[in-house]
Amino acid sequence: MLEIILLIYLCKNIGNLAIQKGLPPARWKWYTIISWILFEMMGFTIGQMTFGLDMSNMIGLMLFALASAFGGYLIVRRNLEQKPDVDTPF
Q1: From CA 1, how far away is CA 62, in angstroms rounded?
Q2: DSSP characters for 60-71?
Q3: What is the band of 86 on the pLDDT scale with cuts at 50, 70, 90?
Q4: CA angle 75, 50, 38 (to 5 degrees)
Q5: C-alpha distances out from residue 11 to 32, 54, 60, 83, 86, Å
Q6: Which residue in 2, 27, 75, 90 is deepest, having the highest Cβ count within 10 Å?
Q7: Which residues contact 90 (CB under 8 A, 6 or more apart)?
């Protein structure tokens, strides 16, 4: 549940940054959600292959997957930050 709340907050953050860059915020929010899910699955799979699938390792595997998912968010954010800002006349 906390993960969903965190993802909603991060999507709002990405949406505001996309507006600042003059890009469609919905597209970048979807990029964030998709990369979050993909990186979380990759992190879980890599953790499972590294540490093995055991009930005693489940908390560690979930934390590894969550850290990987946050890495997916950081990649989307970095790509968005590299875009030029929109010039706003004042």
Answers
A1: 13
A2: HHHHHHHHHHHH
A3: confident
A4: 30
A5: 7, 33, 25, 17, 20
A6: 75
A7: none
| Length reported for the chain | 90
**What amino acid occupies position 51?**
F
CB contact at 8 A, 29 and 7: no
pLDDT of res. 55: 78
The C-alpha atoms of residue 74 and residue 21 are separated, in whole angstroms, by 17
pTM (2 d.p.)? 0.87
Going from N- to C-terminal start, the domains of the chain cover 2-81
* Residue matched to tokens 């992190």: 43
Residue 28: in which H helix or E strand, if any? helix 25-51
